[in-house]
Amino acid sequence: MSDPTSVPTDSLEHTMQPRPLIWLAVGVAFKAALIVGFVSHGSAHAAEPPSVASLLQAADRYRTGQDNLQVETRVTVQGRDGQTEKERLYTVFVQSQHRSLVLMKSPAEAGQKVLMLGDDFWLLMPGSQRPLRITPSQKLLGDASTGDIATLSWAQDYDGQLLGEESCNVEGSSTARPCLHLTLQANRKGVSYQRIELWLGKQRHEPLRADLYVQSDKLAKQARFVFDRPAAPTLVSEMLLQDQLSTHKLTRLQYLQRQPREVPAAWLNPMALVRNPNLE
User: Fold this and answer.
1) I need a surface site. Which of 16, 25, 59, 157 has the fewest CB within 10 A?
2) Quick one: which H or E segment has residue 182?
3) 247-262 burial: b if 16+ Cβ within 10 Å, else e
4) Strand partners of residue 226
5) What SS3 class is residue 109?
6) Separation CA 33–CA 29 (nearest Å)
7) pTM of this prediction?
């Protein structure tokens, strides 16, 4: 008599046989596909370049820090021999919506003001009853124009294209570093430069140098930027402008102090400034 609890030998052998190799291969392939898919997705995401708008906004933050700002500025002109030829002091109120007021503080220019409202610029002279219209390229001292002093916004005033990554030299360093090269075209008329070739640091997107072109597409100036802390920059402390058209002199803009400041509406009205030249 057979044992009712026993398992037939052929059935046991069938149960204990290993799984066919083809199913193991399918499982391994499926897992590998998942892993590769995740890695590929992550790599594609990491390699996605930043937008031009975000790059310019980051660069602007190094130049101004914020809207509604008071900036104490020193402008120095140096000859080819490196000696200082002239020096002037300015108080600049950079406000939102393309508005700026420049007060000239040095004795030779005391009482003069420059007001910028969008694409309109005025020069106000002491004792004059009429503001004088000027252009953003009007020179204040050396190669510093009203647009340079008023610190126009790249993100708001220009449309751009990222050309790629390059190796570029940095002010104060003998070692080249990876940079992002952008080309910018002005999107409004009230700017000093029609085209800008701009190089930003690849990692932090801080501005390192710029070639500045006027309406005729001639290279007018080359700008270099110096930072408060070169190893971990937070703000531009100086902008160096090298003339490329005539004098080839160096103009140095030093940002001595920045602080938040929103000015009264009357300070941004040319006729109100004529009536109240002392800003009282």
Assistant:
1) 16
2) strand 177-186
3) eebbbbbbbeebeeee
4) 238
5) helix
6) 6
7) 0.79
